[in-house]
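quick one, 215 residues, struct below
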Amino acid sequence: TVLTDLLYSAKKIAEGVKSISPKTRIALGGPHINIYPHETISFPEVDFCLQHFAEHSLSMLLRAIENNSGYNDVPGLFYKKNGIIYKSNRDVDKKIDLDALKMPDRRLLDYSKYFVVIDKNEWITTALSSRGCPYQCTFCDVFQKEYLYRSPENLIEEVKDIVKLGISFVHFFDDNFNLLKDRVVRFCELLLEKNIKIRWAFRGRVISIDNKMAK
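---
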């Protein structure tokens, strides 16, 4: 995933990978690719660029590579063939249903290595409950302006799984967690109703917090 300020680092990493393993395929995505796909795919060490949400398109790309079936049907894909840059025939569906996505399997990582800074015995994890932010702050790098969000009921299932692992703190790393007040309040109500013991924090806007939400 590439932000513009990390493009140089991503390019150098790709160069290093190719120098060690020339046959390894390099695919880039992220906000920078949404704006500058042609410029980025022109780097000799980059094989593919995927625009916008890539949960489905990345798996389609992997199957196309495995089956050697061509890339025209992979949504939002830029690729090279004999040195010529091509774009696939399909655009990415930006109205993705976040509730339909599978939850991340934290068991694939040694999650005990992620702990609260002041206490190594308190494990922490991050989670995403929404994507995008409709505000137009000039300093912000959030490319997705349409706000997509998971239901509180869907989100609480992930929190329950986090608690099962012995993780006691979750940081919601959304672009704007608290845009919809009723959603946040309902999530809090579910935490109380189900007696889920976890500490949590989020990234959001101060202006969206009122007394009801804070309580």
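The beta strands are 27-28, 48-50, 77-81, 84-87, 115-116, 119-127, 130-131, 148-149, 169-172, 199-202.
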